[in-house]
Design goal:
With about 500 residues, the chain is mostly helical. The chain is built from 23 helices and no strands. The longest helix has 30 residues. About 50% of the residues are buried.
């Protein structure tokens, strides 16, 4: 079909505009790390535990850092962790917000949160910085929990089948560009200094302003208009804007079949989806892919990289960490180019398997870097390769594959559950990694290597290839292994089950 092989200017604008939400998510993830020491000093002063001038000495006369004070540690940890808590809570609401007024108006509505969060952090010196920053980070986390579900949902629904993978990967590309941007402008001589750090944090709301100006120009998802709202003419108009003048018969027929199936299966709540035996295989695959993304150890790598580069004798390890961010971005672009050719399953397998080997190499490098100086370079190389493998598959694919695995009825609930799973595991890693590292020492990455091996085997055995398939064909893959039951009886029984679950 010709329309599946061309990209229109309107489609490009819609995808770019939606991805601004992902850029903001990435920026908010990375921005808090660079100015940590500066922010801790301001927290200490605001709390009255740190002198405005001079230094603070411990009982034995050694000089203390602001970040060593228990109160400062508590408020700093809360500043970092509250972001994930906000995301965990709001990920439940993705389906509700997306269905309330549509995907486009949903993204427009939640931008109010991003602007409010940016103002809270940008103006934090006007009151108590620790309270203002924590409040801003909580609101921004709430916003990012919504946008990390709404963006892949919208892009997945408007993308032509031939480009669905590449366009879906742009969510992750925007996230890593946002992280890199925050690392660069967070350098000391730019905004990561004593006077400019509130502006650095406040800028995390800037993409929402641009997105709010562009969203009114973007067409609503045709699938939402036709399947959820029954507005056939508006869906046709939206398709024409997204794909140009072409024969819409095939697209409308696919949506019609999905609508028919959706009317049989009923709109699913999160609880109904969890209880449904029909969707259990898809849900299990979706959640495992999000777990593999977070429990791969990628966040631990970003935490550990500066220390490893320092051990390898790099004079300015912060620049090496930015180098990791650049690699991150380059290999996400590689994934954009490959995902619709090589396929989702293949890239995920290559990514997870490669990361597993890199985690083993990193463990060897960390263990022996004090004995052999060249082992530090083994660790450094392993870090760069680990990040490369992550961005080829396990980083971007889980975000958009959930929209591919489910039809319109259960899709919002499935994306909400996957988002909750992602944010919760992100929070768990963030809270526990320091303790795991203290306990396991240089063997910390063996734990991740073991988890990566399990995820690789699971992907090989259970994850189907979705490249080039319609939503209907993907659903059929999961039904193959199920027991054959008379179609009407099976549908009726499941419908009754779901209705009773919804009523409960």
């Amino acid at each position: 079909m010709a329309s599946d092989k061309q990209l229109t200017g309107t489609l490009a604008l819609a995808v770019f505009t939606a991805a601004l939400g992902s850029l903001q998510y990435g920026y908010s993830l990375g921005v808090i790390n660079a100015p940590q020491k500066v922010i801790e000093k301001h927290y200490g002063r605001s709390l009255g535990v740190w002198p405005d001038t001079g230094v603070l000495l411990s009982e034995n006369g050694t000089m203390l850092e602001p970040g060593q004070h228990p109160e400062v540690i508590m408020y700093w940890s809360l500043s970092v962790a509250i972001f994930s808590i906000g995301g965990m809570i709001s990920s439940f609401l993705v389906g509700f917000v997306g269905d309330l007024r549509g995907r486009v108006k949903g993204m427009l509505m939640v931008n109010v949160l991003a602007v409010a969060a940016g103002l809270l952090m940008g103006l934090c010196k006007m009151w108590k910085p620790h309270i203002m920053v924590i409040s801003g980070r909580a609101v921004m986390g709430f916003y990012c929990g919504l946008t990390s579900g709404l963006v892949p949902m919208y892009i997945g629904e408007i993308a032509p089948k031939a480009y669905r993978g590449a366009l879906g990967t742009l969510h992750q590309l925007a996230v890593v560009v946002g992280i890199l941007l925050s690392q660069v402008i967070g350098l000391d001589f730019l905004l990561g200094n004593d006077s400019m750090w509130p502006l650095l944090l406040g800028l995390s709301g800037a993409p929402a302003v641009l997105q709010s100006l562009l969203l009114p120009l973007c067409p609503e998802s045709p699938r939402y208009l036709y399947i959820c709202r029954g507005k056939e003419q508006e869906a046709r108009k939206s398709l024409r804007r997204l794909k140009g003048d072409y024969d819409q018969t095939a697209d409308m027929e696919e949506m019609w079949r999905e609508k028919e199936e959706g009317e049989k299966e009923d709109k699913l709540s999160i609880l109904s989806l969890i209880r449904s035996s029909v969707y259990r295989p898809q849900l299990f695959v979706a959640l495992m892919m999000h777990l593999s993304q977070q429990f791969s150890g990628i966040n631990a790598i970003f935490y550990y990289s500066t220390a490893i580069f320092h051990g390898a004798g790099v004079g300015q390890p912060v620049y090496a960490t930015i180098g990791v961010g650049v690699i991150n971005t380059i290999f996400t672009m590689v994934s954009v180019a490959l995902v619709d050719r090589a396929g989702r399953r293949t890239l995920t397998l290559v990514g997870l398997g490669g990361m597993c080997l890199c985690a083993v190499a990193m463990t060897v490098g960390l263990k022996f870097q004090n004995n052999y100086s060249w082992m530090s370079y083994v660790s450094m190389s392993a870090i760069f390769l680990f990040v490369s493998f992550f961005e080829i598959g396990p980083g971007p694919i889980p975000w958009f594959i959930v929209a591919e695995l489910f039809s319109q009825g259960p899709r919002p609930a499935a994306i909400a559950l996957a988002g909750l799973c992602n944010w919760t595991s992100n929070f768990i890693i963030g809270m526990t990694f320091r303790y795991i590292e203290d306990f396991l020492g240089s063997y910390v990455f063996i734990l991740f290597a073991g988890l990566l091996f399990v995820f690789t085997v699971f992907t090989y055995l259970k994850v189907p290839e979705t490249k080039g398939k319609s939503f209907e064909e993907i659903a059929a893959v999961f039904q193959k292994g199920r027991k054959k039951v008379p179609a009407n009886t099976g549908a009726e029984m499941e419908l009754e089950r779901l209705k009773s679950a919804s009523d409960a």
